[in-house]
Each structure stands twice: as C-alpha cells, then as structure tokens.
Amino acid sequence: MATHAGNPNMELLIPMINQLQHIFTSVNAKLTLTLPQIAVVGAQSAGKSSVLENIVGR
Fold first, then answer.
1. Domain of residue 39, residue span
2. Residue 27: inside a domain, yes or no?
3. N or C terminus of the chain: which is more exposed, having fewer CB within 10 Å?
4. Residue 27: phi, psi to the nearest 5?
5. How far apart are CA 21 and CA 2, in angstroms?
6. What is the DSSP-derived secondary structure letter of residue 42?
7. How many other CB atoms sit within 10 Å of the CB of residue 13?
8. Phi and psi (nearest 5°) for 47?
C-alpha cells in the first residue's frame, strides 16, 4: 500500500468517505460534507496526473 509522506493514513481517506456516503444514502440522509474541488489544466503529457498523484500520495 502506498502512503503519503506527510500522512500515512491518506490511503484510508477515500474508502472512508465512500463508506460514509453509502451509510447516509442507505438511511435516506444527506451527507453535508464539503470536500475540496480542484481542476488541473495543462497540455497533454505536461504532468497533470503526476501532480495529482503526489497530492494523494500514490
């Protein structure tokens, strides 16, 4: 399992959010967790994916 240098639990974050969304949906509740949204813009093969992978630690 890859880990982020600053936070070894980063790999657990997305599955935990997915589980919370599933639980809230199953009880017809609204998950009001505001997650950050980002857009990465650049030319083909400019390293956009690499930047995102570094952010999440993959």
1. 10-56
2. yes
3. N
4. -105, 15
5. 24
6. -
7. 13
8. 100, 20
Residue 11, burial from CB neighbour count under 10 angstroms (0-12, 13-18, 19+)? middle
CA 57 to each of CA 14, 33, 42, 48: distance values in angstroms, whole numbers, following the listed order:
12, 22, 21, 14
Return the structure tokens found at 20. 């919370």
pLDDT tens across 1-29, in order?
Answer: 454 555 667 778 888 888 988 898 899 88
Radius of gyration of the chain from Cα atoms?
15
Evaluated on CA atoms 24, 6, 9, 47, the torsion sign reads positive
pTM for the whole thing? Answer: 0.42
Number of folded domains that form the chain: 1
User: According to the model, what pLDDT value does residue 39 have?
Assistant: 87
Q: Which residue has the tokens 């589980």?
A: 19
